[in-house]
Amino acid sequence: MASLATTMERRTGKPNSSRLAYTALLIFSVLYYARPEDIIPGLNLIPVSKISGGIALLALIAGLAGNKIKTKFPLELKLLLVLFAHLVLTIPFAFWRGGAFATVFEKFSKEVIVALLVTLIVQNIDELRKLILVQATAVAVMTIVSVIIHPGGVRLEGVLGGIFDNPNDLAINIAINWPLCLTFFFFTRGAGKKLFWLICLLGMLYAVVATYSRSGLMAMIVSVLVCLWEFGVRGKRFPMIILAGVIGIVGVGIAISTPNYVTRVKSLFLGNIEGSGDHGSLEARRELLKESIRLSFQHPLFGVGPGNFPAATEFWRVSHNTYTELSAEGGFPALILFVVILGLAFRNVRRLRKTEQYSRSREIQLFTSAMWASLAAYVVGAAFASTEYELFPYFMVAYTSVLYRLASLPVQEAESPQSGSQLHHGIREQRDDARKPECAWNR
């Protein structure tokens, strides 16, 4: 009599350890993005972040233990491991070794583990879609929850923890996930589901205004503009362009009705002005930027240590620039590796458009456009916020790796029901669409 593990493997074409790893990855995503400890009384007493990190590590071990996982390491993942190794080497040279050790092994290691998990464990388009759906839904719903429970008339910050605590991080996260939510709006069928995603899209736009984040605003503008080009002009969804114009007019009206926000936006061009709430922060940020550049050239190889910029400068503030802070803390090798990793993610998206599966699957086309917009939004937002040790950019890099790998499969293998990396669902979706008329939104 076959064992339960063998039975599951026969049914799914996937070893039990791999299924366990993927389930753990989903649980990690829910804990990281949905943050149940912030809304369920008493759950905040449990170290959820450490538990989620442990789940991710166990998932990686379980996944690598599955002898049927033969996914090759893409170049961007190899460079991420090199970046991790380099940051480890910087610890002995750090201004504060204890802080550098904690940043590398308690924070950045989680990003590396998750990127490994996503790249090696996700084996078909259904799994990738489900993982992205968990992230997009969690960020959208929790953003709306933040808007609902935060007191009106004040800046949206500190309502929830994690990525929802800092208004700049929250706004950039919204800008990154907004294209993913837009993808599900187009991909799902049914008025109820489309209404849900439309509410999420509008709520996320309002939340960016509520954060008063100028970096988030710039990232969101890039995200929306790229989405308009990709989904509207390139995708020939002209009703979307009309709707975007209407939403833009409404958004401007909301912004104008929020005087403090308008003042903060003006301060981008006029500097510190009365009512912007900066209290000299713009001049301080310029000094922090200059200091991060100075430290980069003073410590070009190993920097002052990961997470050490606030202590080394004695300003006790981050530099509000991912690129210069990373070079100051990890040296120019860390900055170069980080920029190359992002560049390879863009290359994945560009190569995706040349695959045969891209022309056959509407779902792959939608995800490709969304990832292009998300990456563009992040690159802009990262220039005005410190995000080098956050998880979301590495999630996006891993998504592009997986999608490119799946789209690069031969057509015969992708359509085979026995294939562990099949794209059968996306291709079937494309064929079903060809048999029946589409509504204007899905053209």
How does this structure look, described?
The protein is globular, with a radius of gyration of 22 Å. The chain is mainly alpha-helical. The protein is built from 19 helices and no strands. Mean pLDDT is 78; it is low at 1-13, 273-280 and 414-443. 72% of the residues lie in helices and 0% in strands. It has one domain (74-442).
Brief characterization of the structure:
This protein has about 450 residues and is mainly α. It is built from 19 helices and no strands.
List keywords for this structure.
443 residues, mainly alpha, 19 helices, 0% strand, disordered N terminus, disordered C terminus
| SSE sequence, one letter per element | HHHHHHHHHHHHHHHHHHH
Structural class designation: mainly alpha
Number of domains: 1
Overall residue-averaged pLDDT value: 78
Itemize the secondary structure elements and their pairings.
Blueprint: H1 4-12, H2 16-34, H3 48-65, H4 75-90, H5 97-121, H6 125-149, H7 167-187, H8 191-211, H9 214-234, H10 238-256, H11 259-270, H12 281-298, H13 309-313, H14 322-352, H15 356-360, H16 362-381, H17 392-407, H18 411-415, H19 424-435
Helix pairs in contact: 2-3, 2-5, 2-6, 3-5, 4-5, 4-14, 5-17, 6-7, 6-8, 7-8, 7-9, 7-16, 8-10, 9-10, 9-16, 12-14, 14-16, 14-17, 16-17
